[in-house]
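Weekly sync notes, structure subgroup
Attendees: PM, AL, DS (notes)

Item 1: joint prediction request from the bench team. They want all two components modeled as one assembly rather than separately. Inputs as received:
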Amino acid sequence: MTVTTDTFKTNFLPTWCPGCGDFGIWMSLKNALAELNIGTDDGVVVYGVGCHGNMYDWMKIYGVAALHGRTLPVAQGLKFANHKLPVMVISGDGDGLGEGGNHFMHAAKRNPDIAVFIHDNQVYGLTTGQASPTAQQGFKTKSTPEGVADEPINPLSLALTAGATFVARGFAGDTPGLTAIMKAAIEHKGFAVVDILQPCVTFDKVHTYAWYRQRLYKIEAEYKPDNKLKAIEKAMEWGDKIPVGVLYKEERPTSEDREAALAGEPLKDLPLTIANLDELLHEFI
Amino acid sequence: MMDSVTWKIGGEAGFGIMSSGIMLSRAFARMGYHTFATNEYPSLIRGGHNVITVRIAKDKFESMNRDIHVLVALNKQTIEVHKNELNEGAVVVFDPKDGEYKPEDFPKPVKLLPIPLRDLVAKGMGDPIMRNTVALGVTVALLGAPFEALSSVISDQFKKKGEEVVKHNVDIAKLGYDQVKEDSMFLAKTAKKEDQLVINASEAIGVGAARAGLKFAAIYPMTPINSLITFLADHAKSLNLVYKQPEDEIAGINMAIGASVGGVRSMVATSGGGFALMVEGLAWGGMIEAPLVIDLGMRVGPSTGMPTYTEQGELQFVIHAGHGEFPRIVLAPADVEEAYQLTVDAFNLADRYQVPVFLLTDKYLNESTWCAPKSVFAGDVVIDRGKLVKEQDLPADGSFKRYDLSGPDGVSPRSVPGMKNGFHYANSYEHDEVGHTTEAADKRIAMAAKRLKKFEAIKKDMMVPQVYGDAEAEITFITWGSTRGPVLDAMKLLNKKSRLIHYSWIYPFPAEETMKLLSPATRLIDVEQNATGQLAALIREHTGILIKEKILKYDGRPFFPEEIVEKL
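Output from the run, pasted for the record:
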């Protein structure tokens, strides 16, 4: 059966605010999966907790709704159990970089074959508008009435220095562009991070679609995403001009590649009884 | 002639104290003796005072005894710290370079055996660190065993390092062996009946897990479960499994649950502090009904506590850990044989009921080197994966319900991501039968009740408490986990009739059996390695029976049978 965006339809309707950036990300994910022919039973998506994470109810593909911040360890466990199964992560900026910051760094350094999509809107929407770890300095929210004091986390430069092998930025307001990036991230063999800029139409009156559209530009066609230092430089561009596209791509053995037990069939299909176990007992005699 | 000898060696950390105790155990276990080694060391790598005690006996015993028959002092401090533990007639092996000792320096009459450990090592062109090897030679001679008993263990220990290293170590041990002219501690002879393993509980759990089909373990290093990591990492390839060191225990339990959802048998191991970090993940596992085995090796808390000392302080913690209400199973092995068997049981129970199963162990179990028949660990085991469905059995019409409510025991069929027609969500939120979020009152009640229904079903699988001793006893001891051994040995020393009711299968708590067993008893004595009597509290909670008399120990040192007798 051909996979289309309708494949993922459920009886649930989105509960996001009208105009929420999550719609664009959801649409782009469905497009990417349809183009890759990954249907309901062919992959698994791990969701964090936040507005983004509510997506599973209207996304008919095997889903794991994890705890807030814990998507990446769960995704890695799933990937070890079945390294032939596409594993994707729908995460938030608070979810993935606040509560899950340590997991993010360590996942990047291991390079599991997982695609991570960060819904980056600078606020905690589900708890009605507090500052997230990516909130820009000076940004006034419910938890920062005087404006955010701290430096924001840059998910892309963090991913690059930690060892991610595919790093890109997308925009929720550009479905065709985002579809292409998400598709490339899923196809990439290794830890792929896509930071997706997304307006929160309810709790952020500053970073609107218009605000982003004025600043975003597509990374130049001649840019080659094979140089980590240049990618970091690109990742640090923020202000009047903000680049969108693939910043970095590298082939490196994945964490699954390094496991002898994963050389063939998935772990889940390996025999449970170990033939040489009695022999191994001799080391204790 | 002695039936049981207790030997102690002490010195600085880094002087091969631990390995010499294990080699001695191995030498005698191979001859058919029953051996047991316990260690005591501070939480550091160099310096400090390290001690290992080895008991060797003709017949099986259950615990370490208190009085020392041979003390090997690799430094002066060992004599100062341990001279009060020496039995009358004990032999003290020391290097005269550490000081001149006279019999009146010791509280009880002892036999001094000065051995020039340093000079002998120098004579054998060895490194000063090899004094422990000389001491092993001395010990084996003292106990009247042939030198080959030791040399075969030395050659197995060093064979990876090559012939030359083996020969050097054997030669140095021989220099020690030849120093002893009379075998004053001659051990009664025994015959070898079958191969015995010299193994700790972490390793026994590793073997049990591999036997049960473990495929994934995520374990952050922590005393006292580190030798489980070593076992799994060393054998990952031949056992066809993945061991992963996570960034923290939070990641560990989430990875393990992820792998479990993905269809493989998975586990974590930690101590109390690490488990504190896992509690959030535990509740998630409870909500999505993921099978998981958790090995919790208890040590002295709270907080960092005394990291290398033993305690049974986490029974009530594991029973109550996690926000919200969900079923779980708690098993507490009493020795390495149970550590192996209960691990196999734990994996089957986890799959059968789709719940977290605890193996509640402790430092005493995990870092003591036990001795057990090889046959206990040999041969394939029954593996029951419960209601894990096969892909071909899934209905093609998409009607599969992962959280189907109709099962009488609360257990639903389980598919794994990637199976055709097995679509579902493993949802952290309250959910319906497919896994979709719900906040409807009736659906919430139905799903919560389904999960809790498992408690009753699990009870049918729970083994009843173990009963030892005399039915007409004056005294009834009550223990759980690793305190069984010292109490069983204490019962042999007592001059009155006694009985033991022991819990290795603790939770869901066997209330009915407990009522039957405890009510007629006259004098009940709860023996626990903690300060508050956590099992006694559990018994009170579930049966109303109040156990007034308690022998509790919480100094981090395991019970000696002699002290239990003295406290009566």
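Discussion: Chain A has nine helices and ten strands.
Action: AL to compare against the crosslinking data before next sync.
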